[in-house]
């Protein structure tokens, strides 16, 4: 029985705070895809070469992915609210710079700055939820909303990017972030009340910061370069080797220093490790699908950017339903693995339908039901994953635990785009070579058939990746359902079916 002094009363403003945290998370997630739609227009306007256009995406991915662990540690050190507000203001200023860009250097620089401030903002947002919502049922609802946004924000970005690019111009895909950031920052400043005593004031682990940042940057850049230069390219291989050496050195350093950037106790917990790994694999499949469906709908089916964006609505609806109506309602009743494992399998079934894509495939008959299943499955799995990733960590570690969630997503996204796109390109080339006779008669038809064949070949891989993600979730994650009441510090209270009956959230006293 916990002592009275150990119990912290819930923050009366926590639900208002959730609205502003969710708004900021939506801004960060949709920014990852909103620029993709506008990229061809920005390239023309600023005279960016084909060789350099990838840096609009790569500059953001490198800064964001490389600095996430550092951002999570800063949140633990400075305070999550302060880091959250600073991240929002910086993101808004970087977005304004991008919208006003007059040349490619200015645009690339603004994207890198967006990545830097996003790396502060994203882990601070998730760790705020972790320390503000400690009651199991409320936590389920809060993370249901957060999980739906984290999963569906990318598709929302496609809709918004298409509308802004077509109705206004590409610069508004940057400017649109400014009102998001201002409202979220103002709301956070006045509403969020971070629990006292939850900071980690230990000295900053500078070697860990340098090794993790360089290691993650090398890994993300290696996969990004592989997409354009190939897997056998010397620099691509060099980046992977450097990443392996740097990240191994990082792990060895963290095991020896007094105040590690990423305490290994956070990473080596089997439940959190299972979440990070399965979530990263699921994101590989998802990001590849966003890319393929966008090209299929616009190039093969001839959809406009706006129509393409709206074509992703069933996936968003599925994610919201899966996260808030299935995941959130069942999370306090069943163990997380019984939501994540089946969730990833349902998503795999949706992906499996898309392996049947052909040039003349019906949107209503094939793509719509596939998206609904994919969204339902991902939404159901994402919600408990987001919650469990920060559940049971010490409050002083919640920032870096949150950063690991974002890191697995960011690295997964980079891997998914590069790996599946490379598989699709190879399959398309092989198909075109074996159907040269058709190319002589109708080169345009062969081009489209080769493209679709490449997509379906890569989607088969995505199906397999989701099945593996499901197996990892079921195998590694053994935490039982959370208790229905307020969480308290201490260890699990008992055993059920060989696993812990409940996993606890440490309570932070005011």
Helix content: over 70%
Strand content: under 5%
* Total helical elements: 18
Average residue-wise pLDDT: 81
Characterize the overall form: globular
Name the helix and strand elements from N-terminus to C-terminus, one letter apiece: HHHHHHHHHHHHHHHHHHEE
State the secondary-structure class. Answer: mainly alpha
Protein name: MFS transporter
Main location: membrane
Domain Major facilitator superfamily (MFS) profile: 17-482
Subcellular location: Cell membrane
Could you explain the architecture of this structure?
This protein is an all-alpha fold and 510 residues long. Helices cover 75% and strands 1% of the residues. It has 18 helices and 2 strands. It has helices at residues 14-45, 55-78, 80-99, 104-132, 136-167, 172-175, 177-191, 206-229, 234-254, 264-268, 270-300, 305-311, 313-330, 337-353, 363-389, 398-434, 436-441, 443-476, and strands spanning 495-496, 499-500. It has a two-stranded antiparallel ribbon. Strand 1 (495-496) and strand 2 form a beta hairpin. Helix 2 (55-78) runs parallel beside helix 4 (104-132), helix 3 runs antiparallel to helix 7 and helix 13 runs parallel beside helix 15. The longest helix has 37 residues, at 398-434. It is globular. The two termini are 19 Å apart. The model is unreliable at 1-7 and 484-510 (pLDDT under 50).
């Amino acid at each position: 029985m916990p002592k009275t002094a150990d119990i912290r009363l819930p923050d009366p403003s926590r639900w208002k705070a959730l609205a502003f945290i969710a708004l900021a998370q939506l801004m960060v997630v949709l920014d990852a895809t909103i620029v993709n739609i506008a990229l061809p227009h920005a390239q023309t306007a600023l005279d960016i070469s084909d060789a350099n256009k990838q840096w609009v995406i790569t500059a953001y991915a490198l800064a964001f992915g490389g600095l996430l662990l550092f951002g999570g540690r800063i949140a633990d050190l400075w305070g999550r609210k302060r880091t959250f507000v600073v991240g929002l203001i910086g993101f808004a200023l970087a977005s304004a710079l991008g919208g006003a860009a007059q040349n490619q250097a200015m645009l690339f620089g603004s994207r890198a700055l967006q990545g830097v401030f996003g790396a502060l903002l994203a882990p601070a947002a998730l760790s705020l939820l972790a320390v503000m919502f400690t009651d199991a049922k409320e936590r389920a609802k809060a993370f249901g909303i957060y999980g739906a946004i984290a999963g569906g924000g990318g598709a929302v970005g496609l809709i918004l990017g298409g509308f802004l690019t077509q109705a206004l111009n590409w610069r508004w895909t940057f400017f649109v972030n400014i009102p998001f950031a201002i409202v979220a920052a103002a709301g956070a400043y006045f509403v969020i009340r971070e629990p006292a005593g939850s900071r980690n004031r230990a000295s900053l682990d500078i070697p860990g910061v340098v090794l993790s940042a360089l290691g993650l940057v090398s890994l993300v850049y290696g996969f990004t370069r592989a997409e354009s230069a190939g897997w056998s390219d010397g620099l691509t291989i060099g980046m992977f080797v450097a990443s392996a050496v740097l990240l191994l050195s990082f792990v060895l350093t963290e095991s020896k220093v007094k105040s590690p950037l990423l305490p290994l106790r956070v990473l080596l917990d089997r439940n959190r490790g299972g979440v990070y790994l399965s979530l990263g694999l699921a994101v590989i499949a998802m990001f590849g699908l966003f890319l393929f469906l966008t090209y299929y709908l616009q190039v093969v089916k001839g959809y406009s950017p706006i129509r393409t964006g709206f074509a992703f609505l069933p996936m968003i609806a599925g994610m919201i339903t899966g996260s808030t109506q299935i995941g959130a309602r069942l999370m306090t009743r069943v163990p997380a693995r019984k939501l994540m494992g089946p969730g990833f399998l349902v998503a795999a079934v949706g992906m499996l339908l898309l392996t049947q894509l052909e040039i003349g495939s019906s949107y209503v008959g094939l793509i719509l039901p596939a998206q609904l299943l994919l969204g339902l499955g991902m939404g159901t799995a994402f919600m408990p994953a987001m919650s469990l990733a920060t559940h049971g960590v010490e409050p002083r570690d919640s920032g870096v635990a949150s950063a690991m969630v974002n890191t697995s997503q960011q690295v997964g996204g980079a891997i998914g785009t590069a790996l599946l796109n490379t598989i699709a390109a190879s399959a398309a080339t092989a198909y075109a070579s074996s159907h040269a006779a058709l190319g002589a008669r109708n080169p345009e038809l062969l081009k489209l058939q080769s493209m679709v064949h490449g997509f379906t070949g890569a989607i088969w891989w995505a199906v397999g990746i989701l099945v593996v993600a499901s197996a990892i979730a079921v195998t590694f994650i053994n935490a039982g359902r959370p208790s229905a009441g307020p969480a308290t510090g201490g260890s699990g209270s008992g055993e059920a079916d060989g696993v812990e009956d409940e996993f606890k959230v440490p309570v932070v006293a005011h």
